[in-house]
Amino acid sequence: EVQLVESGGGLVQPGGSLRLSCATSGFTFSGYAMSWVRQAPEKGLEWISVINNDHSTNYADSVKGRFTISRDNAKNTLYLQMNSLKPEDTAVYYCARGIPSYDYWGQGTQVTVSS
After folding, report:
1. 51, 95 Cβ separation under 8 angstroms
2. Contact at 8 Å (CB) between 109 and 23?
3. Within 10 A of 68 (CB to CB), how many other CB atoms are there?
4. Which pLDDT does position 67 carry in this prediction?
5. Distance (Å, whole) CA 27 – CA 97
6. I need a surface site. Which of 3, 11, 44, 63 has the fewest CB within 10 A?
7. Is 109 left (phi over 0), alpha (psi -120 to 50) or beta?
8. Rounded to an integer, what is the distance from CA 28 to the centroid of its chain?
9. Under 8 Å CB-to-CB from 30, ≥6 apart: which residues?
10. Can you give the pLDDT at residue 107?
11. What's the CA angle centered on 72, arms 75 and 57, to 5 degrees?
């Protein structure tokens, strides 16, 4: 059974940092591109980053230069380091398998950026 479990969300002040993790199981993690997607309150889904199985990365303009995606294939875990957080980064963050379509998702972790 494929499972993706996010963690690391929380409440942070503007300008702060958080590191999200996505622990995976049930598939050969190293063989897949993995993405982070978020959904802000009353807004649609927004793709924010992908890391391919060759470790190449890509970012949405909204997070470029502030967020860093990485993966540890030995631990079957995906990460998202988020720096210089802004109130508009407030959202539920999901990890998902694949790009541009996603066949498995985690349950999401809430990130709230507020003073």
Report:
1. no
2. no
3. 16
4. 98
5. 10
6. 44
7. beta
8. 19
9. 53, 73
10. 97
11. 150
Query: Is the pLDDT confidence value at 87 over 90?
Result: yes
Q: What DSSP letter does each residue of 30-66 carry, written as one string?
A: GGS-EEEEEE-TTS-EEEEEEE-TT--EEE-TTTTTT
HEC per residue, 57-97 = EEECCCCCCCEEEEEECCCCEEEEEECCCCHHHCEEEEEEE
Average pLDDT of the residues in 60-88: 97
Q: What tokens appear for 77 in the block? A: 């875990």
* Amino acid letter, 4: L
22-69 tens-digit pLDDT: 999 999 999 999 999 999 989 999 999 999 999 999 999 999 999 999
Model confidence at 105, pLDDT cuts 50, 70, 90, reads very high
CA angle 14, 10, 26 (to 5 degrees): 130
100 CB-near residues (< 8 Å, 6+ apart): 47
10 Å CB burial of residue 99 (0-12, 13-18, 19+) is middle
